[in-house]
Backbone:
């Protein structure tokens, strides 16, 4: 199904902004122009739900979550950045493995099964994209994924 990812992403962010219980600020840096990608919208909703829930779960009180989207060559890159305690470098790739959780004591308290990012990875890869995380301990984490994007003439008319 062809979806304008800007609108799609914006609506998902709206839903979290309306229902969040934490004191966390949202900032959006999305593309101005409609950007159509061919995706399974239900699956990508699950991917974003997990990444955004994680960002909220690990955000400090008063923290900011930044939602970004850029176009780069033949792909779009979608990112969610938080100001949480971060993930140690050695664990950055492991968080995409099933049942992997960085700090068992901390994460047990926050709930979850450790499956969210493993499922997200599977779904992003099924779309021909990649998923990765960058983090500075004590400063925050950015989780990003890419999706193939083909510039079409129609985009200029939006
Ligand atoms: P589930 O998503 O199944 O409810 P979960 O959130 O613990 O459980 P994942 O979403 O797969 O599982 O994340 C795996 C682990 O990666 C988390 O337990 C946490 O340790 C770490 N993690 C993920 N996102 C962040 C983040 N934004 N900041 C800090 N740690 C994170
Ligand atoms: Mg999760």
Residues:
């Amino acid at each position: 199904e062809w979806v304008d990812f800007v609108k799609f992403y914006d609506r998902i962010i709206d839903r979290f902004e309306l229902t969040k219980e934490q004191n966390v600020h949202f900032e959006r840096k999305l593309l101005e122009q409609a950007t159509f990608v061919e995706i399974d919208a239900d699956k990508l909703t699950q991917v974003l739900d997990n990444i955004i829930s994680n960002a909220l779960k690990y955000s400090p009180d008063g923290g900011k979550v930044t939602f970004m989207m850029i176009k780069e060559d033949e792909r779009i890159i979608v990112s969610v950045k938080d100001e949480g305690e971060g993930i140690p470098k050695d664990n950055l790739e492991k968080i995409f493995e099933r049942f992997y959780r960085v700090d068992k004591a901390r994460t047990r308290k926050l709930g979850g099964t450790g499956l969210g990012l493993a499922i997200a990875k599977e779904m992003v890869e099924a779309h021909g994209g990649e998923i990765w995380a960058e983090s500075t301990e004590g400063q925050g984490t950015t989780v990003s994924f890419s999706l193939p994007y083909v510039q079409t003439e129609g985009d200029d008319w939006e």
In short: The chain has a mean pLDDT of 92. Strands lie at 2-4, 25-29, 36-38, 64-72, 75-82, 131-136, 140-148. Residues 41-57 form the longest helix (17 residues).
